[in-house]
Amino acid sequence: MVRAPERPSTGPRIMGILNVTPDSFSDGGRHSDTERAVRHGMAMIDEGADLIDVGGESTRPGSQPVPAREQQRRVIPVIERLSASLPERIRVSIDTTSAQVAEAALEAGAHWINDTSAGCDDAGMLALAAERAAPIVLMHRRGTPLSMQKNPTYVDVVNEVRDFLSARVDAALAAGVAEQNLLIDPGIGFGKTLGHNLALLAGLGELVRMGWPVLLGTSRKRFLSSLCGEPDFAALMPATCATTAIGVMAGVRVFRVHDVAGNRQAADVAWAIREATA
Questions:
Q1: Catalytic residue from among 220, 256, 264, 274
Q2: 3-state secondary structure string, 52-98?
Q3: Is-catalytic flag, 256?
Q4: Distance CA 47, CA 162 (A)
Q5: Has 192 been annotated as catalytic?
Q6: Which pLDDT score is estimated for 142?
Q7: Is residue 25 predicted with pLDDT exceeding 70?
Q8: What is the mean pLDDT of residues 205-209?
């Protein structure tokens, strides 16, 4: 496969998902072996990924927490191998809510922290990000993966997500995280109904106007399955690409996806249109 050319840093960035888990909702078990995981990570770089997000704990609805030691057993060999092989411009992210796992991942060569609890699950996470000067993604989540889809309720989901993220940004800044190292994520599918997810996608511009880079993760999610009548999550790449294009036009900066090549194309075309009309 031909390696994609380097892209300007001002354009949208694609974060490839590398789940080193047996039970993730659409790719559980596919990359749980270190060799296969590393090969898949390298393939995503060839397809145009700018970052690789390595996770050792499923966050699908109903999933159980995974002990920090087991997460480390799953992800550290993969991060070490990827960090030794990837081009300098590529960044590795650790997808965890545990400061212990995040610290071990940073030691192994990771650069970013992707925390689906926005630093709420582990009081040490924000301090770690500050100490290590690591970019950190703060995501909105209602409840825990085990409980989050049990009748989630909002009065105004966009305003409530925005207020939560604003408060977590303030907490991160107070902990010493540098402004340039903060990103926010509305947490599509994390404690939201179909209607909530659609409202957040329609309201992405409001989150972008907060002034922090926005990361969007819709890839192969259940609400897309419902909308498209497609029970096979792996077949939802076109639906994911639609949300990527919408996100680029709204000003989203990073897209966390399983299917890198298609979403890279969608992001690049939408970016070209956005730039032509700026």
A1: 256
A2: EEEECCCCCCCCCCCCHHHHHHHHHHHHHHHHHHCCCCCEEEEECCC
A3: yes
A4: 33
A5: no
A6: 87
A7: no
A8: 97
